[in-house]
Amino acid sequence: MTQDAKVEEELSAKNLVIAGVDEVGRGSLVGPVVACAFIFHNLKTSIKVCDSKSISKIKRIRLFYEILQTNSLFSLGLASHKEIDQINILNATKLAMKRAVEGLRSKPDILLIDGSNKIKSDINQKCIIKGDSICKSIGAASIVAKVSRDSLMDKLSSLFPLYEFNTNKGYGTKKHKKLISKYGITPIHRKSFRLT
Fold this sequence. Notes:
The chain is an alpha/beta fold. The chain is 44% helix and 16% strand. Strand 1 (18-24) and strand 2 form a beta hairpin.
């Protein structure tokens, strides 16, 4: 077990309230970046959480519902495609994470953030590379954010059916880029991104 993998257990043993924070949609060409801040009431849960992108859609959705049944707290934060274009994807990601943390009904003692970028907050923070694979609270945040954003992209697909957002989730697949070349961009494409 790495030192970072022990951090969550050590903080929990001190009875500190831990919020795991992660985001999805950073590399998408369309729509918002979505972040989740997640607090487990009991870290000893038997649920095995992990990086949301490393598991199948079926398993991810099953885990999503299992996580929601743990009587835990979570909050989602979004930064829109317009905000991404205005302030860049890194700053928009931090903004979405900040909004997710500020939306929690209970203020945590510490934030465990996936990756290497802290956010503007008066709450203590620790960044953990690949945190979604080694910390339960970050893994749960990853899964809740991913399922929530995928659901949003499914809804956006019904508004823009030519672009198949229900399958590509807005990411720059070859087919998605061909569709952009053929039909142009939608109002929700990120204009600051290389789209073709």
